[in-house]
Write a structure and sequence with these properties.
about 375 residues; alpha/beta; 7-stranded mixed beta sheet; 3-stranded antiparallel beta sheet; 12 helices; binds pyridoxal-5'-phosphate
Length: about 375
Amino acid sequence: MTISSWKDKALFTPGPLTTGRAVKQAMLRDLGSRDREFIALVADVRRRLVALADADPAVYTAVPMQGSGTFAIESVIGSTIPPDGRLLVLVNGAYGERMVQIARRLSIEVVALRSAENAPVDVDALDAALAQDDAITHVAVVHCETTTGVMNPIDAVGAVVARFGRSLIVDAMSSFGAYPIDLAGWGIDYLISSANKCIEGVPGFAFVLARIATLRAAEGYARSVSLDLLAQYEGLERDGQFRFTPPVHALLAFHQALLELEAEGGVAGRAARYRRNYERTLEGMTALGFHPYVPEPHRSYVITSFYYPDHPNFDFQRFYQLLSERGCVIYPGKLSHADCFRIGHIGRLDVADVENLLCAVRAALKEMEIQLS
Ligand SMILES: *Cc1c(COP(=O)(O)O)cnc(C)c1O
């Protein structure tokens, strides 16, 4: 099969996501990691990320980290919290839980402030918790909880964290690039995202947008060599190089993906396409008789959770397989309290792909002899 003839299945998932052809083609190269061209590419990627965040390059820096998104989260938690620090994690889904798990594994004191999965995190409870516990040094929260697609109010969380003078860590894995984020205005010290979510690069690395002064003050805190965020930053600042083998091809693809994001109109342009995907999906699925799990005001245009239909013939594995045979990959749910599946709206997809998906869903229901509406 040649590159011009393949047609892969469309990925309506939280990741890995569908990528554009030019992004994949950008990887058909071999570059030395110490070569001037590669060093310039890395510097350009870092500069463009700070610009995409609309941040002041004198205040914020972009630090790429090898691995998937979780590796970069682990690098922030593991290398910026002091030995006597305490982390509070606002949890309303699996990704919040994962940050708690990371802290525990690293023997970092952690407090989990849990709330319902179909609503935003509880900002009043955060206020009370910080008022009560002076030992909490850092607060972590997920922007779009991809478990359900719920959006959390980072501005309100940030205002409380700033009032108490603590540090704020935001997992913006599935939102950065498609939702406006005000790093300085919301008081964010560390924001984490990955190459293969809304920026539409290929998997292989993630990145941290860090407040430079806060990161520099974290000297000596790292609990890992390979995931040492400050050392990674210092290495890149010193000679422009990664400390260990860089994901060269993923960076080439990412550079192309950033150019395409800018050509699409930046965050606003990308948000508009994802919103169209979301709205058409919701309209079509609702017409077919499905119901979304998250109430309207809290829903994102990143991913939507739908309840399993209340019908004896519905079997998720069979549904999944029937859609997959028609070129559409959806995702199982990950909820503790409800049976749901998820349909993603991000990645290189547009409304024509959504129409294909809706046709496939209609055909799958027919084949399973399910009549909902
Ligand atoms: C995708 C995602 C991650 C990271 O997942 P990886 O599989 O490690 O790339 C973390 N948090 C959120 C909210 C995500 O959507």
